[in-house]
Write a structure and sequence with these properties.
The complex is a heterodimer. By secondary structure, chain A is mainly alpha-helical. In chain A, helix 3 packs across helix 5. The radius of gyration of chain A is 19 Å and the shape is globular. The two termini of chain A are 26 Å apart. By secondary structure, chain B is an alpha+beta fold. Helix content of chain B is 29%, strand content 25%. Chain B is rod-shaped, with a radius of gyration of 44 Å. The termini of chain B are far apart. The mean pLDDT of chain B is 86. Classes of the chains: A mainly alpha, B alpha+beta.
């Protein structure tokens, strides 16, 4: 019988194949690859969900018993899961598969980093006393759905910038199949709104939890500071669109900058000392 | 005799006073030890460590205690100190906080979330349809205005105008 982390290391390849099929669909222009890609992604997502549930059960069998959201490995797995889920919802809503070629690689990379990076242990460890709280689940879920929405917004912004290269004389199939700019622009905006609301909720749940665990709502630890910076970047993006009517290149660039801040909030601050140190390994 | 960390006691011969300043259950991986300070009346203060496992250390590392006066339990003549046992007392530190402002903070959090929902999903917008008769027939003009989110208003107007155009064209053909 396979254990959860073995299953998850195989799921990594499933996401890689779905990325490959989405790419083939865009390069070859064959609908069949698109259908195959969706099928593989849904199957991968099903297996992924199963493995997370299994890991939860395993932790109870070990007598530790906590939600699989407690360290870098588990958070990366959950991050990939939220990206896959959110992408499948977007694909279902927009009936457009091209976004998959930009969303599935994010899920694949997160899974690969979790499963194959030597510095990340996949074992189930008991919870650090500071994490023993029901706020853990609320905080991690809101933050990671927020990150996933920003991840999709990042993919859509890349598509938007690529679409600019699509000129009639170039006749490049890959670029032509990317949906029209206005749809990408609208979707980027919607994803950013969702991400922003969830990041706000994540910061709020985090600070309520910090108040009960450490006695202070906000301690200016590096992760808190960087989540605030990320929040401000996306707030600026939404503000410039709602008030100044900015769109297109400027917003796509801001969304890419915002996602770089998300990545720094997630990974970069591990190199700085702080209260969130249990998320390092 | 018994001594408490940090509490000075007079030496039996009245040469001054001694105090145990530190106690370790395992010092330098050589077992229990205490740090002592002797303050002779009218003399230089001296400090040294006293190990419990004197014999064992002397056997394993001959000359260990002569290496430095800080390791020699006989540094203060004519006394030689030895450590019989250390008993540790454990304590728990508790922090207690009282926050009468918690409901206010919660109200703030809730209003942030409500405010964001209002900002993103509720806004005023107005749409006009103007019919004007010209020489060729009736011209239908559509216009819209919103208090924020110009991009959203534009998209909504385009969708509404598209629906109107489809309806009018359907009427024309029938």
């Amino acid at each position: 019988m396979l254990n959860s982390s073995e299953i998850l290391s195989y799921i990594t390849f499933v996401y890689f194949f779905s990325f490959l099929f989405y790419l083939l669909m865009m390069v070859m222009g064959k609908e069949i690859f698109g259908r195959l890609a969706t099928f593989v992604t849904v199957a991968g997502f099903g297996g992924h969900t199963f493995a997370i549930a299994l890991r939860w059960i395993e932790s109870y069998q070990l007598g530790i018993g906590h939600a699989p959201l407690s360290n870098l490995y588990e958070s990366l797995i959950f991050f990939a899961w939220t990206i896959a889920l959110l992408y499948l919802v977007v694909e279902w809503k927009t009936k457009n598969r091209t976004i998959g070629a930009f969303a599935t690689p994010l899920a694949f990379l997160a899974m690969a980093y979790a499963s194959y990076s030597p510095g990340i242990s996949s074992g189930i460890q008991p919870l650090v006393p500071a994490l023993k709280s029901n706020w853990l689940i609320a905080h991690v879920i809101t933050c990671f759905f927020g990150y996933a929405a920003f991840g999709l917004a990042f993919g859509l912004s890349l598509m938007f910038l690529l679409k600019k290269l699509d000129l009639p004389k170039r006749n490049n199939f890959f670029l032509r199949i990317i949906p029209e700019s206005s749809l990408l622009d609208e979707l980027t905006y919607q994803m950013t709104v969702i991400g922003f609301l969830l990041l706000t909720l994540g910061i709020i749940t985090g600070s309520v939890w910090a108040h009960s665990a450490w006695g202070s709502y906000w301690s200016w630890d590096p992760k808190e500071t960087w989540s605030l910076i990320t929040w401000l970047v996306y707030a600026a993006l939404l503000h410039s669109r709602m008030v100044r009517g900015w769109r297109g290149n400027k917003l796509a660039t801001m969304s890419i900058i915002g996602f770089c801040c998300v990545l720094f909030t997630y990974f970069g601050v591990n190199y700085l000392a702080g209260l969130h140190s249990y998320a390092q390994s | 005799m018994e001594a408490e960390v940090g509490k000075a006691f007079p030496l039996p011969g009245q040469e001054g006073e001694a105090v145990v300043t530190d106690a370790r259950s395992d010092f330098m991986r050589l077992g229990p030890a205490v740090h002592m300070q002797i303050r002779p009346t009218g003399g230089e203060e001296i400090q040294f460590w006293v190990f419990k496992n004197y014999e064992m250390i002397n056997q394993r590392f001959p000359g260990f205690f002569e290496r430095s006066p800080k390791l020699d339990p006989g540094s203060f003549k004519p006394y030689v100190f030895s450590l019989e046992t250390i008993s540790m007392r454990y304590y728990t530190g508790l922090q207690v906080s009282r926050d009468p402002g918690v409901p206010l903070v919660w109200a703030g959090f809730v209003s942030i979330v409500i405010g964001l929902f209002v900002t993103f999903f509720l806004f005023h917008r107005m749409f006009w349809v103007r019919l004007s008769t010209g020489k060729k027939g009736v011209t239908v003009a559509v216009a819209g205005m919103g208090n924020k989110n110009p991009v959203g208003v534009e998209r909504e107007l385009e969708a509404l105008a598209g629906q109107l155009r489809n309806k009018l064209e359907a009427l024309k053909t029938s």
